[in-house]
Amino acid sequence: MGQGESASSRSEGHQPTLLPSDWRYTIENLAVERRLITINKDQYRFGHELGSGAFGAVYSARNVPANKQVAIKVVSLVTFSSREAEMLAQSILTEIEMSKRLARASSHVVNMYDFDFHRQSGLAFLVMELGEKDLEKTLKERQRIPAVERKELWRQFVNIAMALHNHKIVHLDIKPQNLVVFPGNRVKLVDLGIAQKAYKHRVGSNGTWLYSAPEVANVPRNHTMLNTSKADVWSWGAVLYRITYLVPPRYVHPSHHPPKNVPPSRDANLVDVLRHTLVLDPRERADPIWLSRHPYTTTSSA
């Protein structure tokens, strides 16, 4: 693929401009697997697809000059109207900026290495560190997570929760698919594409059913809601529920109860966390500081 003209940004550079004012659609479809593609002057050999979403896909790749394995998120803007393309472009810029800030605050946020936009194809490329697999794939392979390991995962979740809270960022789409497992059972958060600033209003639904809070995923189209970190607290509780009971919780009170015919966890502290996170009314839900001080987070594993 020819690079064409690009608008790009190194990871420590200025805020990139994604869509130049004279940019127009060229609608050129491109298969990137096994292709050698230039991204911000470096060549990358693309591997297989790691996962995909509504607006793009993530691939394994190798930075050829550095001989370094990376993950690259590829987002196409060519199938959208001008207004939708601009909104998606802003989402990409938001993801880059917020990822950089959070990665400096927490070692449990994926590092963003580079960014480039190819005007010829209408593709945006976000280069980031490569993990082993996402948490959802790990759970499907292993089924059961031992109690000690589950608590260690939870402590990492709380570390991320506090980084988001301290930077006044609401992720809005925390789920096992957006938690990447690295060697040593280290977990890092990815995909801040729909993240927003806390205490700002948003309109309509967002996120992922059951993992996103009810006030995020189950909102009338034109209804306005205020972003708070309590929305992410539901999501952290939903992920903990998933690694405890193998399925996500439901939006039915009491949401923290285990699935039918499944006994509750024998860990009273874990059950208490679920009781205070999986609360339908955000006003009655715990906040990240409560999570950080809870005995399930602070006490050592048996």
Automatic annotation (TrEMBL):
Superkingdom as given in the UniProt entry: Eukaryota
Keyword terms of this UniProt record: ATP-binding, Kinase, Nucleotide-binding, Serine/threonine-protein kinase, Transferase
Record's GO cellular component terms: autophagosome; cytosol; membrane; phagophore assembly site
Example GO molecular function: protein serine/threonine kinase activity
Gene3D superfamilies, per the entry: Transferase(Phosphotransferase) domain 1 (1.10.510.10)
Pfam hit, one: Pkinase
Binding site for ATP: K73
PROSITE patterns: PROTEIN_KINASE_ATP (PS00107), PROTEIN_KINASE_DOM (PS50011), PROTEIN_KINASE_ST (PS00108)
GO BP annotations, alphabetical order: autophagosome assembly; regulation of autophagy
CDD domains membership: STKc_PknB_like
SMART domains linked to this entry: S_TKc
Domain Protein kinase, first and last residues per copy: 44-297
Membership in a protein family: Belongs to the protein kinase superfamily.
Name this polypeptide is given: Protein kinase domain-containing protein
Species whose genome carries this gene: Adineta steineri
Higher taxonomy: Eukaryota, Metazoa, Spiralia, Gnathifera, Rotifera
